[in-house]
Design goal:
By secondary structure, the chain is mainly alpha-helical. It has a domain at 12-64. Helices cover 78% and strands 0% of the residues. The protein has helices spanning 12-22, 27-81, 83-90, 92-108. Helix 3 (83-90) packs across helix 4 (92-108).
C-alpha cells in the first residue's frame, strides 16, 4: 500500500472482538479453578481408594470362614497322612519357620522393603 492509496475502513464489531481477545484474563480466577479441579480429583481418588479397601475387607470377611475351614482340613489330612509333618506344623518351631517363609515371600514380592 502506498501513501496515496486510501485505507480500508475497519469493521467496528471486528475491532471490538480483537480488543476483547487481547484483554488479559484473570489469573487468580484461572488458578482458583485449576486448584478446585485438582482438589476434586484428589477427593475422588481418595474416595475410590477407600471404597476399594472397604470392598476388599468385605470380600476377605466373607471368604475367611471358607479359607479357615480349608486350611484346617488340609492340616488334618497332613496330620493323618504324615503325622510327623502335622506335628511339625503345629509346633512353635513350625510356626517360626512359616513366619520366616512368609516374611521372605513378602520381601521377595516387594511388599516389605529392606534397609537398602
Amino acid at each position: 500500500m502506498s501513501a496515496s492509496e486510501p485505507r480500508p475502513e475497519l469493521d467496528a464489531a471486528l475491532v471490538q472482538l480483537f480488543a476483547a481477545a487481547r484483554r488479559p484474563t484473570g489469573d487468580a480466577e484461572f488458578t482458583q479453578a485449576v486448584l478446585e479441579r485438582v482438589a476434586s480429583a484428589r477427593r475422588m481418588r481418595s474416595a475410590k481408594a477407600v471404597a476399594q479397601v472397604v470392598l476388599l475387607l468385605v470380600a476377605a470377611a466373607a471368604a475367611a470362614p471358607f479359607v479357615a475351614d480349608l486350611s484346617l482340613t488340609v492340616v488334618r489330612h497332613l496330620d493323618v497322612w504324615l503325622p510327623s509333618f502335622g506335628n511339625a506344623l503345629a509346633s512353635p518351631v513350625g510356626w517360626a519357620c512359616s513366619l520366616a517363609i512368609g516374611a521372605w515371600s513378602l520381601r521377595r514380592a516387594r511388599v516389605i522393603r529392606g534397609s537398602r
